[in-house]
Design a protein that fits this description.
heterodimer; A: 295 residues; mainly alpha; MetI-like fold; 74% helix; B: 271 residues; 77% helix; globular
Chain lengths: 295, 271
């Protein structure tokens, strides 16, 4: 607001900035602090970093929690498992989402509006419910197995739930709309004359796609991939409800460390390493989204 | 990119794509009317699970808690998110703008376990320093308001980017005070973003399991927490009924918002 003056400007920027500083940025510093503390029995269950001694203040910081994460291969496998699952889900979302976004972008007028609304609607409905819905479908006695048996394709139920397959399916299903929307944004801005010109100049459809459409929609591909990859790496609900004993994902490890083992310093250290892992894609996402906005 | 021909591949892609997205939800709704206790065995139509749901006191109390939390959190989100969206859209430079932009974006994508854990550790530290806040509804509201504000700011910012500033300048030129311009011109102009922002923050709060589980205390259980502890043990027909009611509520709210915005648009055009 040009006319609001200095005080107005201060309120507009200052109030939300202060809120985010206290409730988003400051907590990170506390997580780092507690990741350097030792676990103890008490409330809160960690040792103070600065102790008051007769001789003055004494600093108690330990890297033992990070050492534990580095040594125990449970954590390493969980980080890699999350990364692998999330990367595969991102690739599958891209493969499935691109044709859907393309088909929506090619639709006309009100059909396009309705299709877009149907893509956005899942954002408004419960994530928990959408994951839960798959449990009844994938169970050994579930709807999909019943259907396949009725068709005569299989005679005994397939193990569809609580394994790697169901986790991957859950990830793809839950995050697909996050991929389709940015892809649609890029595709709808694509100038159809360019596609037509490529065709007129003798390019085959596959050549047009690889040479014209794909490079021009790269910003949408990048934005969509990051929007799927980053939250999928730390996902908890999906591995918890759809995963099995062989599912190792870091979001679930962090949850168990905190709620079941009640080891807050190790949970904090797991979170610090996870944030460090996510920092690069996160900063990339910010740059891409700012550029999308400028376009 | 308008299409030249909407052929078979177009229809097939959309059918498969939307079939995948909506089949699980449709099945869930259908089976919520199943008479059988076995969720996956169809035994005829019956509303019995809706009746059972109304007598489930744990779900009832949790639903009330969730509604209260979501209403408060969405309203706080609206205030902070609108201010933040304004700042990002209208002030091209101010100290800390990149950090501010990052803090507004990161909660949209950061894993919830991180947001939940970090906020909890803040609340615990605060409590040992100043004895406040005690964990429960208040801490959930604060947590939800924080990420809700980030979503609202995205919507407000996008709407302001398409807002014709000539209207504001004309009003200022005609002698309106800046605050009058804000309340009479700018805020009504971005009202669709405000309505959908509040609703989005409301449904996000209503839906959140992970962050609420971290920051809550023994006194407050939200609906997703109650649902989660029940579905951990397996599929249950009562949860199907609850999910169907939840979906109906969300769709009704979204439709209401759409209708309100369309009416506002018509009024503006006839005025």
């Amino acid at each position: 607001m040009t006319g609001l003056g200095r005080i107005g400007r201060l309120i507009f920027i200052g109030v939300p900035f202060l809120w985010l500083a206290v409730f988003f940025l400051l907590p990170f510093l506390i997580v780092v602090k507690i990741s350097l503390a030792e676990s103890t029995i008490g409330i809160p269950p960690y040792t103070p970093l600065v102790a008051h001694q007769v001789s003055g203040l004494e600093l108690h910081a330990t890297l033992a929690n990070f050492g534990l994460i580095a040594k125990d291969d449970l954590y390493l496998r969980a980080y890699l498992g999350s990364l692998g699952n999330a990367a595969l889900a991102t690739a599958l979302c891209l493969l499935i989402g691109y044709p859907i976004a393309y088909a929506i972008a090619r639709s006309q007028g009100s059909v396009r509006q309705i299709l877009l609304f149907l893509i956005i609607l899942p954002f408004w409905t419960s994530f928990l419910i959408r994951v839960y819905a798959w449990m009844a479908i994938l169970e050994p006695q579930g709807l999909l197995n019943q259907f396949l048996i009725a068709l005569g394709l299989i005679s005994t139920p397939l193990p569809l739930l609580n394994n790697q397959f169901s986790v991957e399916l859950g990830l793809v299903y839950s995050y697909l709309p996050f991929m389709i929307l940015p892809l649609y944004g890029s595709l709808s801005r694509l100038d159809p004359n360019l596609v037509e010109a490529a065709g007129d100049l003798g390019a085959r459809p596959s050549q047009t796609f690889l040479g014209v459409v794909l490079p021009l929609t790269m910003p949408g591909i990048a934005a969509g991939s990051l929007l799927v990859l980053i939250p999928a790496i730390g996902e908890f609900v999906i591995p918890e409800l759809l995963g099995g004993p062989d599912t190792l994902m870091i979001g679930k490890v962090l949850w168990d460390e905190f709620f079941n083992n009640r080891d807050w310093p190790v949970a904090a250290a797991v979170a610090v390493v996870l944030v460090a892992l996510l920092a690069v894609p996160l900063l990339a996402a910010q740059r891409f989204l700012e550029r999308e906005r400028a376009a | 990119m308008p299409g030249r021909r909407a052929g078979w591949s177009w229809l097939l892609t959309l059918t498969l794509g939307f079939g995948f997205l909506y089949a699980p939800i449709v099945l869930l709704v259908v089976y919520s009317f199943n008479a059988s206790r076995l969720v996956t065995v169809w035994a005829g139509l019956s509303p019995r699970w809706y009746g059972a749901l109304f007598h489930n006191e744990a779900f009832g109390a949790a639903a009330l808690t969730s509604l209260e939390v979501a209403t408060m959190a969405a309203s706080l989100s609206l205030v902070f998110g609108t201010l933040a969206g304004f700042s990002m859209a209208r002030f091209a430079r101010f100290p800390g703008r990149p950090l501010f932009g990052f803090a507004l974006l990161a909660p949209l994508v950061l894993p919830e376990v991180i947001l939940g854990l970090s906020l909890l550790l803040l609340f615990v530290a605060c409590q040992s320093w100043v004895g406040w806040p005690s964990r429960g509804m208040l801490t959930i509201i604060i947590a939800h308001a924080t990420f809700g504000a980030c979503f609202v700011s995205v919507l407000v910012r996008a709407q302001l980017a398409g807002f014709d500033r000539a209207l504001e300048e004309a009003a200022l030129d005609l002698g309106a005070r800046p605050l009058t311009v804000l309340t009479r011109i700018t805020l009504p102009g971005i009202s669709p973003a405000l309505v959908s922002g509040w609703l989005l923050a409301f449904t996000l709060s209503l839906d959140d399991l992970v962050i609420a589980s971290f920051v809550t205390g023994p006194s407050a259980t939200t609906l997703p927490m109650a649902v989660f502890s029940s579905v951990r043990l397996g599929v249950s027909p009562e949860v199907n009924a609850l999910a169907t009611l939840f979906l109906a509520l969300v769709i009704a709210l979204v439709a209401l918002a759409g209708w309100l915005m369309a009416r506002a648009e018509r009024r503006r055009q006839t005025a």
